[in-house]
Each structure stands twice: as C-alpha cells, then as structure tokens.
Amino acid sequence: MTIDFKGSHFPKSVILYAVFFYVRYGVSYRDLEEIMAERGVEIDHATLNHWVVKFSPLIAANAQARKNPTAVSWRMDETYIKVRGKWMYLYRAVDRDGQTLDFMLSERRDTAAARRFFKRAVGTNGVPDRIAIDKSGANLAGLQSLNVILKFTGTGRIIGIVQSKYLNNIVEQDHRFIKRITRPMLGFKAFHSAAATLAGIETAHMIRKGQLAQTGISAFKQFAALAA
C-alpha cells in the first residue's frame, strides 16, 4: 500500500525522518522539535505528534505485509504501557527466533482481549504449530477459544498450547526494547495515539532485527521504503 502524503506542508522525506527518529530513539516531542530545528526545519511538537499518529500505523501495516516468513513456534506475553496515567496492556508475540509476529494495545487484560489478540496474530501470520504462554488463565482461555473456532471452521489445524515461563523468556527480553523507547516519551495522553505510536516503535524494532530483508541500506531507508 502506497501512503499518501498529499496535503502535507513539508516534504515526504522530512516527515518520514521525524517519525522514524521519534519511534526509533525514544525522545520527547519537545526534544524532537529541537532536533528538527537544528537541521533547519522549524516545526512545532503538535505537528510532529500528528505525523507520528497518522503515519506510523500505515507504515506498520506495510511492514507486516512485507516482513520475512516467521517460525511456527510462538511466544506470547504482555507488558505494561501507561496511558492517561493508567497502566494498559501491550500484547506481543514473537517466534522462537525472536522475530516480531504481532502486537496489540488493550485497556483490559482478560479472556476477550487475549482471544482478540490471538485471532489478529493468526490472521496476519497463519496458524502456528504451538504457542508458549505464561500461567495466565485469561491467555489460556483466549487461546482455547481460538482453537474452538479453528476446529469448527474446517481448517484442520489446532494450536498446541505450552504454559512455560522459561520458554517465554525470549519475548520478555524483547519487551525491553519497547520499554526503553517509550520511557522518555513521558506517557501517552490518549489510547489511539498510544496504539499508533507503538505501531511505529514495533516497526523500527522489526527493522533493527533484520525482518525486512533489505540488506545494505540504512534503517531509516528501510523505514522510508515502507511508505512507498
């Protein structure tokens, strides 16, 4: 999907540079405003926020469509993200090699949220052989619910469920990059902007892990290529 930048008062390259810098390096919008000014671009932090919220989900969708194939053994876990002063839940899944599969911000940590996340991840990546989760009853119930759906839709595939904290170490370690980037952002003011920004952060993390198979070009150029 080609992203439309029509109507913007700045060149596409400037917009993409600002968005990439924010989601990759973990700065505040005030800091980013100063950084852009040092490069001769006078722009206020509200506009920078608008760019990140508008374009990050579109770029993330293209990254999901273009990423390398992933393994059929998954690891799933949640981490915490503060929005409007309250802790919310970022559901995340990686494969056995640590490659990002999918992510979803949720206001609740319950069976419905877990089921929604698993359905989303399977819709994006296909049905895995097995998924390792923690001891959460909600995650177990959500995955079992998805298996019922798979059984009665005639796919012939049932996902193996493994509850093991040891196997989930890889996704817990992977949370650290996301938390390191979000920490300097000083919290999110709205759910939709948090979800959009996290999509950009996850995309930058995928590029960092080499999931787009674009060797020989910089991380920023890989990010910018996702807008084409």
From TrEMBL:
GO terms for molecular function: DNA binding. The keyword Transcription regulation does not apply. One of its GO terms (biological process) is DNA recombination. Gene3D superfamilies: Ribonuclease H-like superfamily/Ribonuclease H (3.30.420.10). The lineage of its organism: Bacteria, Pseudomonadati, Pseudomonadota, Alphaproteobacteria, Rhodobacterales. The keyword Cell wall biogenesis/degradation does not apply. Involved in the transposition of the insertion sequence. Keywords: DNA recombination, DNA-binding, Transposition. It comes from Litoreibacter halocynthiae. Pfam families: DDE_Tnp_IS240 (PF13610). Residues 65-227 form the Integrase catalytic domain. This is Putative transposase. It comes from the Bacteria. PROSITE patterns: INTEGRASE. InterPro entries: DDE_dom, Integrase_cat-core, IS_Transposase, RNaseH-like_sf, RNaseH_sf, Transpos_IS6.
